[in-house]
Amino acid sequence: MELFDLTGEIAVVIGATGALGGAMAEGLATAGAKVAVLGRNAERGEACVKRIKSAGGEAAFFVADAMSRESLHKAHEEIQKAFGVPTVLVNAAGGNDPKVTVTAERSFEQIAVTDWQASFDLNLIGGVLLPCQEFGPTMAARGKGSIINIGSVSAGVPLSRVVAYSAAKAAVISLTQFLAREWATKNVRVNAITPGFFPAEQNRRLLFNEDGSPTARAAAILGHTPMARFGKAEELIGAAIFLASHKASSFVTGTDIRVDGGYLAQTI
């Protein structure tokens, strides 16, 4: 089990104030890493830290906006003072926006360019580009690092309706592969985790009716998922620990681990 021991690692989890990012932050801490919980919502961030500490882990919250270079730089400096030089970066910021979702009331051609740009800013600029620009060079200079980006099952074959989100996540996978090649000789590994469908705040209204029954879209998703269920946030932890561990995944870079219940393996 030493392969999955993260003792001595310093993990930065951006977006740990959300359900999926928070679960991965807690999992990395359980494996022994010191975890820097980053996000804009201090209440949620401190709650994540409290859960980690209650389980015997070590963590601290640092306020940061993933779309602000200055904010990320300030948090980076504070993390180094508190814990040391980060060795793991998990980029879990992102999400879909109803303003760029195709609906009966809003066709594809009616999506405003400014709204499209805002979606890309959130999922690509804040989701990968700026955090990697801030933390990646420090890892490369030190000669050790693992960066884990969060993709989507919509990155390969775009889902209906969520057109901007799908396009942005396709770009996330492309940028992941680019950075994997760029930093490979610096011993900085860059990979992605592609979650399937995990009910969370941002998609709950799309998946469930007010009475708790699945919507037609949820039924279609479950029918396309061989395991016939939604994922649980804690089911991302194993993949995150594997990719974070330099012992377990030292020769793994530029890959995308699917945690989707078989969704992308399903055809007819």
Features:
268 residues; 41% helix; seven-stranded parallel sheet; alpha/beta; single chain
What overall form do the CA principal axes indicate? Answer: globular
What structural category arises from helix and sheet content?
A: alpha/beta
Largest sheet: 7 strands, parallel
Q: DSSP strand (E) fraction?
A: 5-15%
What is the number of E strands? 7
In the sheet with the most strands, the strands line up as 3-2-1-4-5-6-7
Helix percent reads 40-55%
Q: What radius of gyration results from the CA coordinates?
A: 18 Å
The whole-number mean of residue pLDDT values reads 95
- Number of H/I helices: 8
Distance separating the two termini: 39 Å
Concise overview:
With 268 residues, the protein is α/β, with parallel strands linked by helices. The protein has helices at residues 19-30, 42-54, 69-82, 113-142, 163-183, 204-207, 216-224, 237-244, and strands at residues 10-14, 34-39, 58-63, 88-91, 145-150, 188-195, 256-259. It has a seven-stranded parallel beta sheet, sandwiched between helices.
